[in-house]
Each structure stands twice: as C-alpha cells, then as structure tokens.
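User: I'm putting together notes for a lab meeting next week and I want to include a structural view of one of the chains we've been expressing. I don't have a solved structure, so I'd like a prediction I can at least talk through. The sequence is below, exactly as it appears in our construct file.
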Amino acid sequence: MDYVSTGNYLRDSSKLPMFFVSSPQKATPNMLPLIRQLSNARSRYFLTSSGMNIEYRQKGDPFADTIVMLHGVGADCRIFLPNIDKLAERFHVLAVSLRGHGLSDKPRTLSEEAFSMDLMVRDLIELTWSLGVQSFHLVGHGIGAVVGYELLTRDPNSLLSLTSMAAPAGQEGLKGALKILQKATGLSTRILGNHVKQAEVAAKMCSTDQQVVAFLKEEVFYATDWSIAKLIRPLLTGKNYLEILAQASKCPILFIMGEDDSIEKVTGNGRAMQETIEKLKDYPHVSTASIPGAGYFPNLDQPNAFFVALDMEFRKISQKGFGG
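Assistant: Thanks for the context. Below is the predicted structure for the 324-residue chain, given as structure tokens.
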C-alpha cells in the first residue's frame, strides 16, 4: 500500500511500528495546492553503528549522481518533499532526517554530546556508504548546511558540490543564526506543552505564505522537540568555516537566499548571511542566488525558482568539470 501524503509514514522493517500523522483528506484547504506537489517517496530507515535509526526518503536512479538534502534545526526531511520529484528526474535524491528530528531516533540521553557534529556527520556518511554512495551533492538548510561545511574539513572528496541556505559560515553570521534559534526556542519554552501553538509560532516566523505556514505548522513543526534545538546551540558558536569554504576550490558552493527572509530581522542586524557572502563572493567556485518572493525556506516559498537555481548550478558544474 502506498502513502502519498507528507504525514503518512511506513517503516520498511517489519520489526518497527507503522506511524500515521495526517493525510491529504485532513489537510486544510489552503494546503491542497502544496500537497499536490509533494513527493510520494516513502520513509526508510538505516541503523547506524551508534544504534540510531535514521529516517530518509529516496527517489531517482540509484546509478545517477546523488543529491543529499539535509534540513535545519526543528525541521526534518519533509521540508524537501515539494522538491524531490523534480530533482529525481535527473538525480538520485536522498532527503535525510538528522538524529532526533522527524522519525529518526532520539538518543536515550539527551545531551550536547549526543548531538555532536561528529555524530551527525558520521550518521550521514554511514547512511550514504550503506547505499553505495561515496560522493554526492549536498543541499542543506541551517544546521544541515553546517554539516556540509564540516564535511569539507573532514572528507572534502565526499562532496561533489555544496548548496547552503540560511547557514552563515563566519563567526558573526553564526552568532546571528544563534539568535534565531534562541528566539524560536525561547518562544516555544513559554508555550511549552501546547504543540499547536508552538508549531504556529515557529511556522509564522519562517514564511508569510499561508500555504507554507499551514504546511510547516501541521506537517513539520507540530512534532518538533525544541529541547533538542537547545542542545544543538553549541554547534553554532564554536567554529568559523569561512577559510575552509574559501579553500575548497574543487567543491562548487552555492548560497541560496530568499529576498523576503523576515527571519533576518530576528538577528537584530539583518546580516546573518552578509558576512559569509562578502568574504567569499570573489572566489570562482562560489556562487549566490537570491530568490524574489522567498523567505527563510526558499525551497518551500518558491519551489520552481529553487529548482532553477539548483539546475543552473549543476549544469555549470557539468560544463566546467569541477574537481575532475
């Protein structure tokens, strides 16, 4: 039996339970146009060496180049459901939920050590290697992109390219991102226990598009555990990746930004990404794409423009033969 909604989950292992969250029939009217674009890629699970079941969705030719899509704090692989099918026409696509997010397992002991960058990178590498994927394009949002930055320091040959959204690489930008996280978790703490209200507040911070707000509220943030977001805070304060990205000349890097990203206002100075762009804009392997009408989630607010930006980048990579 196939489940086509973003909220329907089927664990592939017979030893694991089946989960149902919501379905298209329960969707609010303004969600219907967005739901029609969602991929029917089903959730699958991979057991890591540390005992974590990691959720991922897979679609496309497994022999084609792979795109790995990683979400930010508080979200999960579902934020890429409107993007998977179009990309899967040419690529092998993996959308992954980081540990503690979506239907990936939570560590038994919730601590900063359980959500270290080392463990999140290891989870991803073990998953991709288990699928026979040793190198891939990484498209990351927030902490998902920071995982990509870390991969450049540890295993640069694993990345064919890196696309980053809402993930400043410099120290000042990271401090701005931390303010976003503090704002979100602070609001959630004050309304702790009211999952509906938590989800609504977080969704309205991210988009002004009512379809996207409804999607985030009802299908993504409803199940978010904001206590985990607090544990990931240290990952946004301890490292400056600007020099690493500047030196990664064999890895094409694309920064995608929404022109109407109201989240930047939460940082106080509106420069969460500007430091990164200013420092890296003159390097030939670095590109930027600014999408009109898009906010914190360009891939949700303007999925077609998001696809065009990625498509142009991948075609440019193919023509130039980066890293060959």
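A couple of points you could mention at the meeting. Residues 1-30 have pLDDT under 50 and may be disordered. Residues 171-190 form the longest helix (20 residues).

User: Perfect, that's what I needed.
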